[in-house]
Design a protein that fits this description.
Blueprint (H helix, E strand, L loop, with lengths): L2 H12 L1 H23 L5 H13 L6 H25 L3 H17 L5 H24 L3 H27 L3 H24 L8 H30 L6 H20 L6 H7 L5 H25 L7 H19 L6 H23 L22 H10 L6 H23 L6 H9 L4 H28 L3 H18 L4 H19 L6 H21 L9 H25 L5 H24 L10 H23 L10 H24 L8 H11 L7 H30 L6
């Protein structure tokens, strides 16, 4: 085999969607082949629907965990399918069972993503059972279709277990590669902030950086769950231990690159005629490229070599700093200290990236535990669900909305008796999302994808009338659906529409499905949109105060953990990493909330500008905290220690106080003379102070200066809140 072909095949194998798509292809092709071999094309539809439901229920896990999840999934599927067949002849009982079971299944999402995915797939399979019952009636053939649904689900599930047993480490490689790709993009966007250009739109670039931070946080969370599922209860093996080192390295790099040592515009103004910021920018861009190269090396399971060009760029930066220092300009004294801290941080990033090529040189974590957010007992699971049984809970609202939407759809079916009417319920399940913005996007994609699929099906029916060719198209369409459903839902909907058309054409007249499919899609989408708009609507602007408050309180907890480490020395223990991750998760949640708000009707997004300003301030605050975290070390005793302890305690308390005011919609003091006095004390550092204490004092001063703008934004939001007195 030629090297170029070998490389191409290796890249194809390393793609995240390739393994998933190949499993779906084997499952669908095997089911189709079995039906053609025995001449039982009527078995195609239930087998395919079972495979689809099982694939939708799949979550990443070890092979043993996947086997347990498969057992739970099949039990849920069997109970749901049996309940559908038993209650189908009794519409009133069926309607009550549909509403209650949907509510209960959606509430399982409170236990975690894995349980929510299985519950969602169970609802979908129960609707597949309704479609089978509607097609066949309530005779013995319907029970056979139910067994075939379960057989298709079991077939794909066993295939998934076998795949996870053979290639258990591939998902870890892919998730870590995604982390480093997103980190590389964060490095690149961060370098844009260091561009020494006058009147640079810093706010817009900080906003884009905050959005990218959300993507990095999401990738880190996925990687953590992937690693956690493979750690087990014993000591991790050599391979998993290496991946753990790469994960912790990514966390540390994230903290370092998100650090802010000084307002960048002040540096740009002071050093406008120097090349020092260009040197910083170039080094960051080279490190961004190195992150991308490391991502590719991890994904392809190849050695990583750090480019020597990065070392030369760091040497050039040091030379530029030395030139500025030699000029002895008194106005630059404090700014040069911040530049030295920035340079030292970049040098540490340099050393860490260079060590990624030889994992043996990476220091083992003092505490390599990962925090498991899954329920640890039945009592814990019940308590989590109980806590969510309140109208203020987003999960409760979605569960109530989904159950009432399906109940409404079922009533409409019995009122107008449309052809293939149970596709209405299926459309409602797929379109109805937890918030208005996501539902709006899904609605447009579902309708346009269905129309596209019907047009393509009409053409392909005429061009390829042979049943065996259409059977092949059905398998390919199923693969395309699963390969694109998370990223290109319009194409995925077109593909699943084609699969349905070709499968029905195997046993009857596929042409008769065209208009019912389009009508049912429109009707189901309308019901989903009405449910999200009318039933306990979750308008993002109404909970902005809670999201803001969570961001501030998470930053306060992060600050306390950082300052503890300046007393005891750097130690990345679980408590510190959890506080850091919670702060970044809160920042990412705020970014996602504002993105959803932009998709809502105009009246409900009037606070969007305030929200984005707050996001910029919050992310800047997180940058100052990250700089403190990046330079953690045990400080020697100094006269300034009492000031640092006092300042850290007061700043954390101020953040918590502001968070509490936002939660309770209490008025906020805009002018705090004590905070202004504290900021001046922190900024007035004596010349003889050592660099370690000076850095901490400078960063605390920058944090203190952020409190005023944060109070202003919080006060504006509280004044505009519904029901707040003028």
């Amino acid at each position: 085999m030629r090297p170029s072909l070998r490389r191409s095949l290796r890249r194809l194998w390393a793609l995240e969607k390739f393994g998933y798509s190949l499993r779906v292809f084997i499952a669908l092709a095997g089911a189709m082949g079995l039906c053609w071999y025995f001449g039982r094309q009527t078995m195609v539809i239930p087998l395919f629907l079972g495979v689809i439901a099982s694939a939708l229920a799949e979550t990443d896990d070890s092979w043993l965990g996947r086997l347990g999840a498969l057992a739970v999934t099949l039990v849920c599927f069997a109970v749901a399918a049996a309940a559908v067949q038993a209650l189908f002849p009794y519409p009133w009982l069926f309607a009550i069972g549909l509403a209650l079971s949907t509510f209960a299944l959606v509430m399982l999402g409170a236990l975690g993503e894995r349980y929510g995915t299985i519950a969602s797939a169970t609802v979908i399979l129960s609707i597949y059972g309704m479609i089978a019952a509607d097609q066949r009636g309530t005779d013995s053939q319907t029970w056979l279709d139910t067994l075939l649904l379960l057989a298709g689900a079991a077939w794909y599930g066993l295939l998934s277990v076998l795949w996870n047993a053979l290639f258990s480490h591939q998902p870890v490689q892919q998730s870590l590669a995604r982390v480093y790709r997103e980190l590389g993009q964060y490095f690149r966007l961060k370098s844009a902030l260091l561009e020494p250009v006058r009147q640079l739109d810093v706010e817009a670039r900080r906003l884009e950086l905050a959005r990218q931070n959300g993507r990095v946080v999401g990738a880190l969370n996925i990687a953590k769950e992937t690693l956690l599922s493979r750690l087990g209860h014993g000591r991790p093996g050599a391979t998993i231990n290496a991946y753990l080192k790469l994960y912790f390295l990514a966390q540390d790099l994230h903290e370092r690159v998100s650090s802010s040592h000084y307002p960048y515009q002040a540096l740009a103004e002071a050093f406008f005629h120097s090349d020092v910021l260009f040197r910083c920018q170039r080094l960051l861009r080279l490190q961004a490229s190195a992150c991308g190269e490391l991502a590719e090396a991890i994904q392809l399971d190849q050695p990583f070599r750090y480019s020597e060009e990065n070392g030369m760029a760091l040497a050039d930066l040091d030379a530029s700093l030395e030139h500025l220092r030699a000029q002895q300009n008194p106005a630059w004294r404090d700014l040069l200290r911040s530049l030295r801290a920035l340079s030292g941080n970049l040098a540490n990033v340099q050393r860490q990236l260079a060590s990624a090529g030889n994992l043996e040189t990476l220091a083992g974590e003092q505490d390599s535990a990962l925090f498991d957010r899954q329920p640890q007992s039945l009592r814990d699971a019940v308590e989590r669900i109980r806590q969510q049984l309140t109208p203020t809970s987003l999960i409760f609202r979605h569960a109530l909305r989904m159950s009432l939407a399906l109940l409404c759809g079922y009533a409409v079916l019995h009122a107008i008796h449309p052809d293939q009417g149970y596709w209405v319920l299926l459309t409602t399940v797929f379109v109805c999302q937890p918030n208005y913005g996501a539902t709006r996007i899904k609605l447009v994609q579902r309708i346009s994808g269905t129309a596209l699929g019907l047009l393509a099906g009409w053409a392909l029916f005429d061009l390829f009338p042979h049943p065996q060719v259409q059977a092949l198209f059905a398998v390919v369409a199923g693969v395309v659906f699963f390969a694109t459903r998370a990223t290109r839902y319009t194409l995925a909907t077109a593909a699943i529409t084609l699969l349905v058309l070709f499968c029905f054409n195997q046993v009857g007249d596929g042409y008769g499905l065209f208009w019912p499919r389009l009508f049912d899609t429109l009707l189901g989408s309308l019901i989903a949109a009405a449910a999200v708009f009318l039933i306990l609507p979750d308008w993002q602007g109404r909970r902005l105060n809670q999201v803001f408050a969570n961001t501030l309180s998470s930053n306060a907890a992060y600050l306390r953990q950082i300052m503890q480490q300046y007393e005891t020395g750097k130690r990345d223990d679980l408590a510190y990493r959890l506080a850091r991750r919670n702060a970044h998760n809160a920042d990412a949640a705020l970014s996602a909330t504002l993105a959803n708000m932009l998709l809502e009707p105009g009246h409900f997004r009037k606070e969007a500008e305030t929200g984005f300003r707050f996001l910029t301030l919050s992310h800047t605050l997180l940058g100052y905290l990250s700089a403190l975290g990046a330079h953690r070390e045990s400080l020697q005793d100094d006269a300034s220690d009492s000031l640092l302890d006092e300042a850290a305690a007061r700043l954390a308390a101020a953040l918590d106080e502001l968070a509490e005011a936002l939660r309770l919609q209490r008025p906020v003091d805009l002018n705090r003379d004590d905070e202004e006095t504290l900021a001046r004390r922190l900024e007035d550092a004596p010349e003889e102070m050592d660099d370690g204490h000076r850095l901490v004092q400078t960063q605390l001063g920058l944090i203190c200066r952020q409190l005023g703008p944060l109070r202003s934004m919080a006060s504006h939001l509280i004044r505009r809140a519904p029901g707040q007195p003028a």
